[in-house]
Amino acid sequence: MDAKVKDLRKKAVVLLSGGLDSTVTLARTHEEDYELYPLSIDYGQRHDKELESAQKIANWYEVKEHKILKIDISQVGGSALTDMKIKIPEKRDENKIGSDVPITYVPARNTILLSLALGYAEVIEAQAIFIGANALDYSGYPDCRPEYFEAFQEVAELGTKTGIEGKPVVIKYPLINLTKAEIVKEGERLNVPFHLTWSCYKGGDLACGKCDSCILRLKGFKEAGIEDPMEYED
Amino acid sequence: MDAKVKDLRKKAVVLLSGGLDSTVTLARTHEEDYELYPLSIDYGQRHDKELESAQKIANWYEVKEHKILKIDISQVGGSALTDMKIKIPEKRDENKIGSDVPITYVPARNTILLSLALGYAEVIEAQAIFIGANALDYSGYPDCRPEYFEAFQEVAELGTKTGIEGKPVVIKYPLINLTKAEIVKEGERLNVPFHLTWSCYKGGDLACGKCDSCILRLKGFKEAGIEDPMEYED
Questions:
Q1: How far apart are the CA of A109 and the nearest CA of chain B, in angstroms?
Q2: pTM attached to this predicted model
Q3: Domains along chain A?
């Protein structure tokens, strides 16, 4: 591909945590022939497992550039995912997950992630920002609903240079209405390297199999009838 | 004041850069009897002068808590304020300032600042977020216009736990329609410690007097007929 043709490729910033959903989203963006600019946020997670996964996945897809932005929102607190003093819940009833705002909710998480992606998208002149948010399995998270993303789209249109010039970046959330099983099937179709992803809220050598995230993942693979290559404790 | 009465005070997160506008905004929030939680963002500015000012101002107002959040958006680039490779413009015609999107515009700056304030506001259960944005002197910045803040308000209502519970934080931007001279007069009325503020885009011992920010400040004080205690070069 010569330089001129290459310049015509669409660019996408893809929020990549290293988990299942963001990896399937990256695979989808890749399929749609965007030039890939994954963005991972080191926000003071309890462990580095997710970020290590994100790096392996970025390498797997031979992305244009993988940016890891460090921001210590654990200083702000308020979530079991960033505050070591709050215990991560275990073995919750899978039907209860998503029916409340859980303690693993990070305040304004998606707004913070999208705002950083918006700044990055503006600098590299990306056409789209992809986020692997999902409204079904995370209905307890207010910032995982379509109406929330529509409101953020408005912010992107009004609050950026590209937006007021009539070329706003488009916020895309292709997994929003899929069940976890459907996400797994979509990942299978796209040949996603499931073995490189990390979903567990804890950072052990093996996934715990007991936190909300492990429970949803296990249920998803089971319902999809696909084997999860992740190794679990016990 | 006993503990019970104290708990009834409204809380406000105030974005405090250490400049003139954010300091006048803090003074206004103080006048409105909010409990003050200023938030300063160490976003990889060229210099620490602003943050030093922010700390002095927070001390002056004996705030409840001053949070400084570090996030290196200079990695994202695209602005003369965070990228040492881009030269800060000097001696621009004061009438031209604000008529374009200048190179000192930080991509998605206010969206990033507000999203961090939103997360913090949610954790401390604040009723309001104050930002000293101004549409007149910074009409070149897309994220300093009322319609932009209205869009962000929608994000705050839809994307947070407090928002979906019907107690959304309110985004306030009291300086939005003031000229710089009016902001200076408002600061005078509120006894703002002008001598502690820092406006210059550069980080010298004295303010440069030549960058857009110094030019606007000097013009504001002159038009207000108030003496600027800032010391300038030359």
A1: 7
A2: 0.89
A3: 3-179 (3.40.50.620)
